[in-house]
Amino acid sequence: LACIDPRFPENTIKYMRGRHLEGKYSQINLAGAGIAAVAPAFEKWRPAFWENLAASIQLHQIEKIIVLDHRECGASTIAYGKEANDTPDKETETHRKALAEFRAQVKQRHEKLGVETGLMALDGSVMMFDA
To answer: Rounded to two decimals, what is the model's pTM?
Structure first.
């Protein structure tokens, strides 16, 4: 799961290629990535995401989901406000909390599905968050 922000598709592909996952994953893109699946501001989008995830599990037998939120995310500002993202530390914590909630919601729906969550910087580097 990645964001629709036009600054990140290439970096997302490079990241997945670097993990030797090219051609081995289903990709879902929503504004805000993990935030889109959990933030109240995007509640109407949730059914489409969860149904897509269920279809990917059924069709491609995926065993885990990798979620890549990113820095300077406009959807995060829509969802949580400018103040929640106005410093790098606050921004990191906003994404960490949202992705922890995402992880919990995945486990409620798909108990056996692995979940990896990370925050991508503008240069394509990724800070992964532990469960």
So the answer is: 0.93
